[in-house]
Every structure is written in structure tokens, then in C-alpha cells.
From TrEMBL:
It comes from Piloderma croceum (strain F 1598). The lineage of its organism: Eukaryota, Fungi, Dikarya, Basidiomycota, Agaricomycotina. CHCR repeats lie at residues 460-623. GO terms for cellular component: CORVET complex; fungal-type vacuole membrane; HOPS complex. GO terms for biological process: endosome organization; intracellular protein transport; organelle fusion; vacuole organization; vesicle docking involved in exocytosis. The keyword Membrane applies. This is E3 ubiquitin-protein ligase PEP5. It is a peripheral membrane protein. Belongs to the VPS11 family.
């Protein structure tokens, strides 16, 4: 298998070997000085020959010497820990550290086999000297009776496996090492028994390395409940641990974990390496093998990559993504193949025969040389620690290779226009996206200046999200580069980073190029990304890659109405779709059908805006839709399957709507109300079938033509002969018809049909049939808002009444009815007479007056109790002289209102005696009026005389007999009043004499009363006599009684009357109101009560 892999990669290797590395100076060489003596290297490195090993660790740099000691160095190369790892003249040969655990291999005197020791660097052994870490395990490394030195060591990152390579070609593998060293056992020799996994006596082991597993959670595809075995095996390989074994002639791989553990190592490559010339790459996935002719990268499947770099190599090391190659000492020459060596030989004066060592830092991923330098004293060790490369020379000097900042490295590449290499470096350096985008931007600017606009745009596209779009757009606004601009704008939209201006620009470019195909593709693009909420989480909805409002607007402006309507219809922008169809495309029929599909809620607001324009184009169909909208409580289109709409509520505005308001606010669109429905009623028939004046044949033809837009009405249900009680119908809320009144300003005939049909279907009200019949034929659902519904009814009938009085009968009347010019006004009169139709009487009065409709005026005045206005109306007509029967109408209506309207007779009497003509025609009527006035006492005779004598029309002979009768009655009344006056005077005179007698002290009073006025018994002593001629037993009177009980009651009533009159005398407002009502009668009553000349009781007492 290894041979096949080698052959399959042969051609690939040849091409790679021909690649010449570009050389840069990405590292600065800085000498490392001692902290106490800046003129010399660190103290610890002065005895360089005694240093046996250097190794990096997470705690610091580890240094081992030939005396068996290990030192842990800090950043200043000062030991912070030192201890003897191998005593008795031993030395440390190998060291490796993982997670604070150090594994050392060394030799000690008296022990033939190498010793394996495991230390815990994070813990200190308190029993030993300060700084000595805890020794976890110690064991011998031996495979047989004959010991062999250790040539290589490898430790997995998880401490689970330890591999030791010997000089005799044997590889020992310790499994589950972590479980052993961290177990509760205290025995130092408690370590797993090693397993010999490879033996090659003729090939010493020169390198070992673990390929770490990748723990991935790749979803396994399902096929009928079973997974694909091949895919499953590939996923398992990523989770397995492999050990690379490098000998002098081969590279092998051994699976250290998984199902096939224990099998023999497989040959990866037939090319081996010398000691120290094999190392794992920085990803720890492949092993790098350095030979004289080239550098090879090998994986578990075989050789992968080859890099041409000729020359001897003494060791290779890894530092981050770099490979450090150290060459063996050689004598520099001006004819050397290496430019670094040639420059060194030219610029330095070394003694003849002096050798140097070359250190080269390779970036294998980007295929460049990051550093190349020479060291005169030779290189002892190279180690990667603290993010830097340290080179220890044989004379004890230490040099540090510090990597330059990424910005400085990129500037070097920019100056040489190596932008592709800069991008590769950014990827390997794992720069953030903004830095990578900046490289693409500079690369795009470079290509733009060279005239490669396509290549520049390819780079600018990759900067989307980090570079302002305006920076790129300004570069490509020329007509010659508009295609590149389209590419950029399309990608901007696909990533969801375009705003409305970008959408406008893109669509304008499409329209300018007349690229309908790309415009179709862009418009019909499905949503490509998920929208996120405020927390950045996916909210489960799709989001368009462009601004929808802008796309619709630009397509409309450019005349691409089909594209604009497609977007509006697809994404349910109902208002935009209707605006396009009506205002732009003038496709009124499609807009009408679309409105029917939308349902009442959306159709209401859009018809409020476009109803007038649609009536101009499709008057019958639009009127039909408006009727269905205002009467149906369900969907506007009846399908076989029932369509339901969600119930919503709407606030209704109050107030009647009159025809005179139609010219106002035609462009204003009110807030769209909503509807609530649970049932659907059949749509009304076509508008023309409802209109008056249409013949049967005309109705049939129009029904046929409108069948596509309006479904036919459903047949009426059969009438039951018996009365059944229906369940209560739930309340529904329909749309207000007042919203659409202004649209019919130029279509009055359709307006009549609209209003009549809405009134009949919605409320069961009609002027053509009896209300009871309408109520039986059309069930009316109760409204949700009764007050708003009542206002709608009033507005509908007010407007219908005005239309009946305004429109001529010839416009809507049938041919057979043309002989009757008052068809419409007869309807108006039926409306006014109806007790069930809710119209506004005051509004009707104004309409009838404005249009001189006399029957309506009289009817409304009578309904409103304005009888005097009726009489005055006919009186005015008589005075005008164009209505001969006006005076007869006055008398006629007076007789109608006779019993309860007495105040009308003086008015009629004044009218009938206003002219000789009226007097001659209505002499008997005048006598009847006078008799009624006398019988009901409506006017005094003097008032009648004043009425008749105001002009010279009526003669005395006309009322002679009536006057004689009145005079006789007056004389009798005067005689009766005179007799009462005489009796009152006599009584007053008698009372005054009694007062005089009682107040005379000269004449004693003699009491002749013999009986008690209280008990009517015979008076006896003691008795009490009062001056009023009343006497009482003393026992019949109460104690301390000083007034006559009989007279006191009478006088008390009189005093109370006087007090009331006194109080009334102070209430001037009441007196004035009585005077305004009764006049002279109120003043006379005041005098009779003494209100006007009241003498207060207090004044009398004083």
C-alpha cells in the first residue's frame, strides 16, 4: 500500500519540488544577555559543553546537563527550580513535558539500562531540597539482556501514550500511562508494561511523533435507518491516535487506539531521515522528514507534500506554523548555492577553514522563507519557547528570533505586490476577518490601478461587511464598468447587507442595461437567510436579500410594472399591488378580482382610496363589490369550501353623511377598519339587474357578461308554512357604507342602486315593499355596535332621500313609467311617510324646502308638530298668487288641527280678513272661525274687533250679530260684578264699626252670653269673656290662654296668607315671569293680594 501511495504522489512531488521559495526577513535576530551582565550571555549557558538537552514546557524552559541535573528557567533565563534527576554520575538524554508532567530519560552509573522517570512539575517534594518536584514514577527501559541507548521519545498530549525509540530499531509503547501515574498507587515502579510495536535491527529509530485525534461530531447520514460504513470509518479514523515511526530508511505509522490496535505498523514512505531530522508539524497531524534533497510531509495515508530544499540538515524543529532547519557546520564560500552564505562570505572576514552553521525558518503553508541566517560558532540547540525561537550556539551565546508584527510582514508583501501571499499568510496566522478584508481591499485597489476591473471586483466582493460599500461603488459608476458594479451589488444583496439605496442602484443598472433576465432572477430570488431577533437568535422566519419597498418603487418608476406587481403580490403588499394595477397598469379588472380575494378587511381601505377610479372604469362591477363589502359578513368570493375570517373590532365614527359632502376629502383615505364575521350571505345580483328602468332582456345580457366577476345569487330557501323559533344570531360587525359615498359623485344612478341594495340586504328596509315582507325574506343579523349601525342607517336614507329629490325620473325610470314624472319623488314621499325607515326629519325638512317638494314639507311639519308653519306656508303661497287653492288649504288644515290647536284660529282669522278676495270667498269660514273662538273662549271680543279693524276689509255688518251677543253678555257680567262689589262694601262697613266699638275705652262692654262657646254648657263662675263676644268656662281654657280659641284659628289663617303675600312681594323674578305670561291679569292679581302695596306686619306692630 505504501508503494502505491508513493507512486500516486510522484508527479505531485515533482511539481512541488520545482517551486522556488521566496525569501523574506520576517524575524529579527536579537542577542540574549544576562540580567546582571549585559555584555555577556546568560550565566546558565556559559558551560555549554555540559548542556545535554533543552526542552520547552508550560512552566518554562527546561535545561538538563551531563551531571544529571535539570533546571527550570524563567523568561530571563534564571533558574527557578533545580534538582538532580539522575544521580551517581548520570545524565539526562531526553525530556518531554505535557500538562505539567515531565518525562525524562537518562543514564546513571551502575545501571546498564536507561532510566525512565516521570515528574510532577506543579508539586514540590517537601522531603527533598527546595524546588525538587514530586517524582511520580521511575522504571528501567529494557527489552532484553543487552541494553541499547534511547534515540527518540514521544508523549501524547493526553499523557495516555508514551513511545520510546531505541538505537537497535525497537519501539516501545506505554499505554494508559495517565491512568497509572494518577492512580492511588504509591509505588514508583507501578507503570504499565511496555509493548514492543516495531523492531528493525538494521534501522535505528531516528524520530517518533503522535498524530493527535480530532474529536468531531459529524452528523452521520441515514439511509433506511442504517449509516454508510465508509463514512463511519472515516469519522473513526479522525478519532484515533497514530504513532509515526521514522527510521534511517523508512517512515511508518502505527494505530495506537481504535479497533485495529496491535496490528503491525504500515509503511508510509520509503524515505527515512537521520537522527533529529524528523518532527511533527504544528498541527500535530503529519510528520515532517528532512533529507538532503528535500523536505517531505507524510501522513497516515502516505507522503503528502514535498518541498525542494537541497543541502545537509542536522536537525529540524517546529515553531508555530514555521519549520526551523539547522544545517551542519560548513565552510562558507562565495560560490555557494545559498545567497545567505554568499553574502556572509562576502561581508565577513573569517580565518581560512572556519565553518559556520545556517539556520533557516520556513513557512511551509505559504511556501516562503521567513528567515535565513548564519552562526559562526555553530548551533548547539534550537528551542521554541514563549512564542519565540531561541538558538544556543556552541560558545554559549544565545540568540532570539523575534517574529515581526503581522502588519510589518504584510507591508513587506504589499511593497512587492504579493497580495496572494499576504492572503495566505493571513489565513495561516489566523487573522480576524477585518484584517483579511483589508488585504482584499488593497489587492483590489492594486488590480484596479492596473486596469484589471474583473479581478479587482472579485477582491472587493470579499470585503463586503468590512468595507463601506460606497468606497467600491464610486469606483465602478462609469458606464464601462457597470457590469462589475452589478456583480458587487448582487453579492451585497445576497449577503443581506444592502440598504434601500443599494437596491435602487442595482435595479436602476438592470433597467439601464435592459437586462430583463437578470432582473427576473433578482426579483424572483427566494429569501436566502434567516432573520434574527434582538438577541441574535434565529426567529424562524425568512428575510429577503433586498429592500422590498425600494424594489417595488424602482420597478414602478422604470416602467417594469409586471415585476413590481409580482413582488407586491408575492409578499402580500396589497396596497402596492393595487396601486400598480390601478395607477400604473390601468388593469382595473384584475385589481377588482384581487380585492375580492383579499376579503373585507383589506378591501375596505383600498376601495376607500381607489373606489372612484374603479367606478370610472368598471361602474357595475365596482358597485357590486361595494354592495357585497357593506352587506356580507363573510368572504367576498364564495367557494365550495367555506372561507372564514378572523373576528376583529373597529371604532366607528359617528355623524350622518349627506350627499352634499361628496365633493369633500376625495383623496383622503381613512384608517382601514376591520370586519368580523362568522357566516357568509349570498352576494347581491348584478348592479344592472337591480337598477330601475332595465328590461328583462337587458338584465339577462348583463348577467351573462358579469358572470365571471360576480357569482350568481343563491336560490332563496323554501318558505315554511309553520312559524319556527330560530336560535339567536350572533352579532356581527359590517363595514360602514358612509366610507364610499364620495366615490359615487359622478355615478348617481349607481349610487341609488348601491344605497337601496345595502338598505334592503343589510337592514331589511325598502320603499318598494312592506317592511314586514322584507323582514321575512332577508334575515338581519344584529350589529355589534348598535349606535354606529344606527348612524349608518340614517346616513343611507338621508342620502337616498336627497337623491330621490334631486335625480330626474327619466334617468332611472322604466319605459312604462315615463308617463309618471314623479316616480322618484313618490319614493321620497314613501320614505317620509314610513315609520320604520330611520331618517333625520330635520335633514329631510331642509331637503324638501331646498327642492320645493310641498308634500314632503307639509308631511314633515305635521310629524314635527309645526302646524302653524303649515298654515303660514299656504298663506305665503296665496300671497304669491300662483296657487289658487292655497286659501282653501289653509281652512282645510285648520279643520284638521281643530281640536287641539286653538292658537291657530286667530292666525287664520287674520289671514281670511286680509284681503277682499279672501273675505268674499271665505265668508262662511270666517263665521265658523268666530263661533269657534267664542265657544272655546280663545279671544276676547275686543281682541276680535282689533283683528278685524286693522284694515278696511271687514265691515261691521259682518260681525254685527256676533257683536250684539257679546255686548249683551258683557253687560250681564258687569251687573253681576257690581252686585258683588256692593256686598263686599257693606260687609267691610260692618267690620269697621265693630273695630271702632272694640277700640272705644269710654263705653263699657256688656256680655250677654250665657253659654260656653267651647262646651255649650251654662256659664257659671269662674268664667272668661273675650271682646269678640265669646265666653268660656275657665276650666275649658288652657292655662295662660290669652286669645279666643275660636277666633285665633280664623285669624291664624289670615296671618299665614299675609306672610305668604309678603314673601311673594320679595320674589320679583317670579312676579315678572307671571306678568310676561298673563299680562294685565297678573298685575290685577297682585293688587288684589296686596303684593304691590304690602304693609309688613312688623310695621303694623310698630
Amino acid at each position: 500500500m505504501a508503494c502505491n501511495n508513493i507512486l500516486s504522489n510522484y508527479n505531485h512531488e515533482i511539481n512541488l519540488c520545482l517551486y522556488k521559495f521566496k525569501q523574506f526577513s520576517f524575524f529579527d535576530l536579537v542577542p540574549v544577555k544576562d540580567t546582571h551582565d549585559l555584555a555577556s550571555p546568560p550565566e546558565i549557558f556559559k558551560n555549554t559543553p555540559e548542556i545535554s538537552n533543552l526542552a520547552p514546557s508550560s512552566s518554562g524552559l527546561l535545561l538538563a546537563d551531563i551531571h544529571g541535573s535539570i533546571h527550570l528557567l524563567n523568561h530571563e533565563f534564571v533558574p527557578i527550580k533545580s534538582w538532580i534527576a539522575h544521580s551517581g554520575g548520570g545524565r539526562v538524554t531526553h525530556m518531554v513535558e505535557r500538562k505539567g508532567v515531565l518525562v525524562t530519560l537518562g543514564e546513571e552509573d551502575g545501571v546498564r539500562s536507561p532510566l525512565l522517570k516521570i515528574w510532577d512539575l506543579e508539586k514540590v517534594d517537601k522531603k527533598l531540597s527546595m524546588g525538587t518536584p514530586v517524582l511520580l514514577r521511575s522504571a528501567k527501559v529494557q527489552t532484553g539482556n543487552r541494553p541499547h541507548p534511547v534515540s527518540s521519545i514521544a508523549l501524547s498530549d493526553t499523557l495516555s501514550h508514551l513511545a520510546i525509540g531505541l538505537a537497535d530499531g525497537t519501539v516501545l509503547l506505554y499505554r494508559y500511562l495517565d491512568q497509572s501515574i494518577f492512580s492511588s498507587s504509591t509505588s514508583l515502579t507501578s507503570i504499565p508494561k511496555p509493548r514492543t510495536i516495531h523492531e528493525s535491527p538494521t534501522e535505528p529509530i531516528t524520530g517518533l511523533g503522535f498524530r493527535e485525534p480530532i474529536f468531531s461530531s459529524i452528523a452521520e447520514p441515514q439511509t433506511n435507518g442504517h449509516t454508510h460504513d465508509k463514512d463511519k470509518d472515516k469519522d473513526r479514523e479522525k478519532d484515533n491516535l497514530y504513532l509515526f515511526i521514522v527510521t534511517t530508511s523508512r517512515v511508518l505509522s502505527y494505530q495506537a487506539s481504535g479497533r485495529v490496535v496491535g496490528s503491525n505498523p504500515s509503511i508510509v514512505d520509503e524515505v527515512g531521515a537521520g537522527l533529529g531530522c524528523a518532527v511533527m508539524d504544528w498541527h500535530k497531524r503529519d510528520i515532517v522528514v528532512a533529507r538532503e534533497e528535500a523536505v517531505y510531509v507524510c501522513g497516515v495515508e502516505g507522503r503528502e507534500t514535498c518541498y525542494a530544499y537541497e543541502g545537509s540538515k542536522s536537525s529540524v524543529h517546529t515553531h508555530l506554523n514555521y519549520l526551523v532547519i539547522v544545517s551542519p557546520p560548513f565552510i562558507p564560500s562565495a560560490s555557494s548555492a545559498s545567497a545567505t552564505v554568499r553574502n556572509f562570505a562576502r561581508m565577513t572576514d573569517l580565518p581560512a577553514g572556519s565553518d559556520i552553521t545556517k539556520v533557516t525558518v520556513f513557512d511551509l503553508e505559504n511556501k516562503l522563507v521567513a528567515y535565513s541566517g548564519t552562526f559562526e560558532a555553530g548551533v548547539r540547540e534550537v528551542v521554541s519557547q514563549w512564542g519565540r525561537i531561541f538558538v544556543l550556539e556552541n560558545d554559549g551565546r544565545v540568540s532570539c528570533l523575534e517574529e515581526k508584527p503581522t502588519s510589518a510582514k504584510l507591508d513587506m508583501l504589499y511593497r512587492k505586490s504579493l497580495y496572494v501571499l499576504a492572503l495566505n499568510m493571513a489565513k495561516s496566522q489566523r487573522l480576524d476577518e477585518s484584517s483579511v478584508a483589508d488585504i482584499h481591499r488593497q489587492y483590489g485597489d492594486h488590480l484596479y490601478t492596473k486596469g484589471d476591473y474583473d479581478g479587482a471586483m472579485a477582491q472587493f466582493v470579499k470585503t463586503i461587511g468590512w468595507t463601506q460599500p460606497s468606497y467600491v461603488i464610486r469606483k465602478f459608476l462609469d458606464a464601462q464598468r457597470i457590469h462589475n458594479l452589478v456583480t458587487y451589488l448582487q453579492e451585497l444583496h445576497s449577503l443581506g447587507l444592502a440598504n434601500a439605496d443599494h437596491t435602487t442602484l442595482l435595479l436602476n443598472t438592470y433597467t439601464k442595461l435592459k437586462d430583463v433576465t437578470r432582473l427576473d432572477t433578482f426579483i424572483k430570488t427566494e429569501s436566502r437567510r434567516k432573520s434574527t431577533n434582538a438577541n441574535g437568535d434565529d426567529d424562524g422566519t425568512d428575510e429577503l436579500p433586498f429592500d422590498l419597498d425600494t424594489a417595488i418603487r424602482v420597478c414602478r418608476q422604470a416602467g417594469y410594472f409586471k415585476h413590481a406587481s409580482y413582488l407586491a403580490k408575492k409578499y402580500e403588499r396589497h396596497e402596492d399591488y393595487l396601486r400598480i394595477q390601478i395607477e400604473d397598469a390601468k388593469n382595473f379588472r384584475d385589481a377588482l378580482m384581487y380585492l375580492r380575494k383579499l376579503g373585507p378587511e383589506a378591501a375596505e381601505s383600498n376601495l376607500a382610496r381607489y373606489g372612484r377610479a374603479m367606478l370610472e372604469s368598471l361602474p357595475e362591477e365596482t358597485t357590486q363589490l361595494l354592495i357585497d363589502l357593506c352587506t356580507n359578513s363573510g368572504p367576498l368570493i364564495l367557494d365550495k369550501e367555506e372561507v372564514t375570517t378572523s373576528p376583529t373590532t373597529r371604532q366607528s365614527t359617528a355623524g350622518p353623511s349627506y350627499l352634499s359632502y361628496l365633493a369633500l376629502n376625495r383623496s383622503a383615505a381613512p384608517a382601514p377598519p376591520t370586519v368580523s364575521s362568522n357566516t357568509a350571505i349570498p352576494p347581491s345580483p348584478s348592479v344592472k339587474t337591480v337598477k330601475l328602468g332595465d328590461t328583462a332582456s337587458r338584465r339577462d345580457s348583463i348577467n351573462e357578461s358579469s358572470r365571471s366577476s360576480t357569482p350568481p345569487p343563491l336560490p332563496p330557501p323554501p318558505q315554511s308554512s309553520t312559524l319556527t323559533i330560530k336560535p339567536r344570531v350572533p352579532a356581527v360587525k359590517r363595514l360602514s357604507p358612509r366610507l364610499y359615498f364620495p366615490h359615487f359623485v359622478d355615478h348617481m344612478d349607481h349610487f341609488v342602486v348601491f344605497l337601496e341594495t345595502v338598505a334592503r340586504r343589510r337592514w331589511g328596509q325598502s320603499v318598494d315593499v312592506e317592511p314586514a315582507a322584507v323582514a321575512v325574506s332577508l334575515p338581519v343579523e344584529p350589529p355589534v355596535d348598535e349606535q354606529a349601525d344606527k348612524l349608518d342607517q340614517i346616513a343611507v336614507w338621508n342620502t337616498l332621500l336627497e337623491l330621490y329629490l334631486t335625480l330626474p325620473a327619466a334617468e332611472v325610470a322604466d319605459t312604462s313609467e315615463k308617463s309618471s314624472p314623479d316616480v322618484m319623488r313618490d319614493k321620497a314621499l314613501r320614505v317620509l311617510k314610513s315609520e320604520s325607515i330611520p331618517y333625520d326629519p330635520m335633514h329631510g325638512l331642509i331637503l324638501c324646502s331646498s327642492h320645493s317638494y310641498t308634500p314632503g314639507l307639509v308631511l314633515l311639519w305635521e310629524k314635527m308638530g309645526m302646524y302653524e308653519d303649515v298654515l303660514r306656508f299656504w298663506m305665503d303661497r296665496d300671497s304669491e298668487g300662483n296657487t289658487p287653492e292655497a286659501s282653501s288649504q289653509v281652512v282645510h288644515h285648520l279643520n284638521l288641527y281643530d281640536p287641539t290647536r286653538p292658537h291657530l284660529y286667530p292666525l287664520v282669522l287674520r289671514f281670511l280678513t286680509s284681503s277682499p278676495e279672501l273675505l268674499s270667498r271665505h265668508t262662511k269660514d270666517i263665521e265658523m272661525v268666530l263661533e269657534h273662538i267664542e265657544r272655546e273662549k280663545i279671544m276676547p271680543p275686543l281682541g276680535v274687533i282689533q283683528v278685524l279693524s286693522r284694515n278696511g276689509v271687514a265691515s261691521v255688518g259682518l260681525v254685527k250679530q256676533w257683536l250684539m251677543t257679546r255686548i249683551k253678555e258683557s253687560r250681564e257680567e258687569i251687573h253681576t260684578d257690581q252686585q258683588l262689589i256692593d256686598s263686599y262694601r257693606l260687609e267691610t262697613k260692618t267690620k269697621l264699626k265693630q273695630v271702632e266699638a272694640l277700640s272705644d275705652p269710654e263705653h263699657p262692654r256688656v256680655f250677654h252670653v250665657t253659654r260656653c262657646s267651647m262646651c255649650s254648657g251654662q256659664l257659671d263662675l269662674p268664667s272668661v269673656h273675650f271682646m269678640c263676644d265669646h265666653s268660656y268656662h275657665q276650666r275649658c281654657l288652657a292655662d295662660h290662654e290669652t286669645e279666643c280659641p275660636n277666633c285665633a284659628r280664623e285669624h291664624g289663617v289670615i296671618r299665614e296668607i299675609r306672610r305668604n303675600n309678603e314673601r311673594l312681594a320679595d320674589q320679583h323674578e317670579l312676579f315678572l315671569s307671571e306678568v310676561q305670561e298673563n299680562g294685565f291679569s297678573a298685575v290685577a292679581t297682585g293688587f288684589s293680594r296686596g303684593v304691590l302695596n304690602m304693609t309688613r306686619l312688623e310695621e303694623v306692630a310698630t
